[in-house]
Prior knowledge:
Strand 2 and strand 3 (85-88) form a beta hairpin. By secondary structure, the chain is an alpha/beta fold. It has 8 helices and 10 strands. It has a 5-stranded mixed sheet. Strands 1-2-3 form a 3-stranded antiparallel sheet. It folds into 3 domains: 8-102, no CATH class; 105-145; 160-292, Alpha-Beta Plaits, CATH 3.30.70. It is globular. The chain has helices at residues 8-38, 90-95, 105-112, 121-127, 135-144, 236-249, 266-278, 290-294, and strands at residues 52-63, 66-78, 85-88, 160-161, 165-179, 186-198, 217-221, 250-251, 257-262, 284-288.
Amino acid sequence: MINIDNNFFNNFNNLLYIQNIEIIQQNLEDCDEWIFKNYKIDETLKEFKDYNVKEIKPRTLTILNGKITFKRRKYYKINPETGKEEYIFPLDKLLGIEKWQRIDNSVKEKILSFIGKKKTYQDILDTMEHIKICIKTISNIMKNAKTDKEYYLNKTDKKIKIPHTLYIQIDGTYLKMWNEKKKRKKKIKKHSIFSTVHTGFDKAKSTKKRPVIQDKLGVIELDNIPEYIKKNSKLTNFVNKLLTLITSYYDVNDNIEFMVLGDGAPWIKNIVKFIQEYFPKNKVHYTIDKFHLTS
């Protein structure tokens, strides 16, 4: 008998959520099994071939689909110099998950993407309700962004190819957060600037209603920003982060052109000059982005 009532769609969504988690969990454990069967013979796994299996341990990670717990093998080898055991989780290594990491980079990227939309922590929490995180987690991700050179990175040693133009979108906003350094906890507004860098739209994934940006990386700066950003404000820290990201992760040659998009603010135009000085052989263009042009 089919149970049909006013909770039908809610129950169905919950069922899909559970099934998605189970599918991801099974795929991760299948990957771990494949590593176990092939790490001694497969060339792509040669960095693990001197290790032996120690035990199987579970790991819990928060991803965009929610919290997932999966089992994977822990390997060890004896260090010839110290005589001590060294441990590694090959699946974690291949996934780019750090030992201390509890939240996947995709969740961090999603939370930080709300900065430009001026969402409150509660708004973000409501939007990502199924992920089961708390406001404190969102706050920590926002605050720690100031120490990161990038908020999202593809885990690859290969530089991203640029078809013709590298797009650099820059904007600024105010974030409301708690100032915990004060004796009395006080809510303050903190100026932040951020930039998204990409190579244009992904034609394979984009639709008419939903364009998808390709090869997206970005930087955020919360510190060292004047209360009022002027044309000649010293934004050295942000500019250094931006240039480091571009040179580290994109394959830039003399034929590549840069397109900087912003809201027309003088300080953004000033950053354009920094980019041109850093890449003197490349063409650097500036225009107002579509959002600010039509709003």
